[in-house]
Amino acid sequence: MNDKPVWKTILSVAVCLLAVIRLAITCSKSSDRSSYSDTSYQNTNSIFERYGNNSKDIQGNDSKSNDLFYENYDSINKLNDAQKAIFRVVKVKSDTLVPIDITSKINVEPKSFIQKNHDDSLQIAVKLPDNTSIFLHSYSSKEDIMNNFKAVKQKRNIENIKVKVDDPDSKFVSYTYQYKGKKYNGCALLATESGQFTSFEFENSKLSKEELQAKAITFITQISK
Questions:
Q1: Residue 35 burial (C-beta neighbours within 10 Å; 0-12, 13-18, 19+)
Q2: Pick from 222, 221, 225, 223: which is nearest to 17 by CA?
Q3: In contact, 197 and 138? CB cutoff 8 Å
Q4: What is the pTM of this model?
Q5: pLDDT tens digits, residue range 22-39?
Q6: Is 39 helix (H, G, I), strand (E, B) or coil?
Q7: Cα separation of 31 and 105, whole Å?
Q8: 164 and 173 in contact (C-beta within 8 Å)?
Q9: What separation in angstroms does the CA of 92 have from each of 37, 96, 119?
Q10: Alpha carbon of 20 to those of 83, 166, 188: distances in Å?
């Protein structure tokens, strides 16, 4: 991933967002579930090195691989070891620090799945045991920030897009989409800086919009520490 400081812009949005949905964070059970007492974290870099760039099977499968974490948790859990290796998916056994860029990490809970492709758009994906999907897209683009976001989500036919926090170079948006007969709530933190677009997305078919936004904030604030 490029190491341009797009997160400096994103974090300024997070500060505003905390005030906007403070009530949701206070009452949301999902916020509680994202607090961990175990401090013996594991860095996932060593896990991903087991797959490296030696798997020729991944070539030509980028599109399918990028769509994998839109499936439910149980479906991903049924993948065998060979399939996980092809799609560069690992299941973590303990609280795990996942590198977002050179200086930033987020903590994910045990039994979460992590995918790190390093393709042209999707940088990393996480599937939590409660079926929350987290996607980090980042790529070079001179397009409008919202056009970039819609391009990233073009396969999902997203609707009901609402800008919660608005800044020329960064936004927090909510949205919905239908997938395999289920309605998904989504929210995303968007930023553009020096021609680099970044989208940090959170999606779940069971959590309410307020619960999902509260969960998103628990991850966003980790980056600012």
A1: exposed
A2: 221
A3: yes
A4: 0.76
A5: 433 344 334 333 333 333
A6: coil
A7: 18
A8: yes
A9: 17, 7, 22
A10: 41, 12, 15
Please state, in angstroms and rounded to a whole number, the distance separating the CA atoms of residues 135 and 115. Answer: 10
State both tokens at 177: 């989409």
Which segments of the chain are extended strands (E)? 42-43, 89-91, 96-99, 105-108, 113-115, 122-127, 133-140, 159-167, 170-179, 182-193, 196-204
Instruction: List b or e across 47-60, with b for residues whose CB sees 16 or more CB atoms inside 10 angstroms.
Output: bbeebeeeeeebee
| DSSP single-letter state for residue 214 | H
Q: How far apart are CA 102 and CA 137, in angstroms?
A: 16
Could you read off the pLDDT of 121-148 as tens digits, one per residue? 888 899 999 999 999 998 888 889 999 9
Residue 211 phi/psi, 5° resolution?
-65, -40
Q: Tell me the C-alpha distance between 85 and 79, whole Å.
A: 10
Dist CA 86 CA 72 (whole Å):
18
DSSP class of residue 88 equals T
Q: Determine the Cα–Cα distance for residues 19 and 206; give it in Å rounded to an integer.
A: 24
Torsion sign (Cα): 33, 200, 187, 79: negative
